[in-house]
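Thread: quick sanity check before group meeting

JM: Hey all, I'm pulling together slides for Thursday and realized we never actually wrote out the predicted structure for the chain we discussed last week. Dropping the sequence here so it's in one place. If anyone has concerns about the input, flag it before I start.
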Amino acid sequence: MERPARWLLIMMCMCLLGGCASHISLGNRLSHPTAVQAWTPRDSAALFERLPQHTGTVITPEQVRLFWRAFPAGDYRFESHYRSADGRSEFGFSVAGLPADPNTFPAVPARDTVLLLHGWGMESSSMLPWALFLAQHDYRTITVDLRNHGRSSRAPMGYGMREARDVNALISQLRAQGEITGSLHVLGVSYGAATALFAAALQPGQIDGVISIASFDNAADAIRGMVPAIRDTPASGLRQALTRRWMQWRYGQVDVDAAIDDASRRLHLDLEQVDTTQAIASASSCVLLVHGARDSWIAPRQAEHLHAASPRSALLMLPEDDHISAPLRLDLLAEPLLAWLSATPPRGQPCPTPLLAPISVTGSTS
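JM (edit): ok, ran it. Output follows.
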C-alpha cells in the first residue's frame, strides 16, 4: 500500500480546521473531531478481509462503546519503506505471508502484547503498519478506535484525560477475556500518545511500558502551536496549495485563545489544565518518548519537558522528521523500539535507554 505522507497532512488539516471562519467554529472543531480512514475504503476492505484477526467491543463505565481489533503474532512477511526527496515523502507497506483463508494463518505464541492508540481525527487503521510490524516480531497487537473516532461511540472529548479512563477500562476487560498475553505496552501517536501517558498514570500497574510518539505536554499549548503551523505549512502540489489557501482564508485572523476557551466550555474541561507532564511524572511505567526535531505542530521542546519530568523516561529525537513523518519512520525506529520493548523490566526497576541507528531519509524494514 502506497500513500504519500503529506496526504495525511491534508486530511488532518481538513479535520482540524474544517468549518466556518469564526473562532466559535474552530472551538467546535476542537471539541468534535471528524475521524478519517488512513486508507481508502476499497484498500482497507480488501486488506482486512485477508488478515487474521478478531474484533470486539467493550462498554466502559462511562457507557462509551469502544471497537477493538486484535492481530496474532506470526510471520506476515511484512515490509515497509519510507522515502523522502525534494520536500516530498512517501510511505508504503506490504504483507506477503497471508494464506487464502485467514483462519489458517500460522500464528505463534506471543511474547507480550502491544495496544496501539491512533492520533486525533484518525482511527485505528492508521496504526495498522505498526500493528503488523510488531505482530511479525512476536507481539500480540490490539488496535482501538478511541471515543469519537471510527466505530466507537460519541462522548465528550478529553484530549487524553477522559480517553485514558476508556483505555484502562478496555485493558481490564481484555485481560478478563484473555486477550492480553504477557506484559502490556501501549504505543500511541500524538493525541493517542498523550492518552497512553494519562492511562499509565491513572492506574499504576496496568501498563508496563509506554512508547509515546509526538505527544504534547499541554493541550492548550499544543493547539496554540498546531493551528498556525497547519495553516502555514508549505504546500507541495496543487491539491496542497489549494488546501493551504483555503485554510489561510478561513483562519488567517482566527483568535486561537478564544477558540480554546470556547472548546473548554463545550467540553466542560479546562484545556489549559490538560497537562501530560504531571501524568508522566506520576507514572510508574517505563516511557520512551519519540519526537521529530522538525515538528512545527508540537514543538520538540514539549517532548523535552516531558522527558525532564520523569526519570523513568528516555527521549529519542529524530533530527530530520516532523509531526507527520515521525510516526512513519519504521525504518529508523524498528531496531531501537524492539530493543527497548524486549529490555523493559518489571515496574520499579531501571528503564532501558534506546539507541538510534544511523539516520537515513530513505529506508525499509521488515
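AS: nice. Residues 4-24, 358-362 have pLDDT under 50 and may be disordered. The two ends are 14 Å apart (CA to CA).
JM: adding both to the slides.
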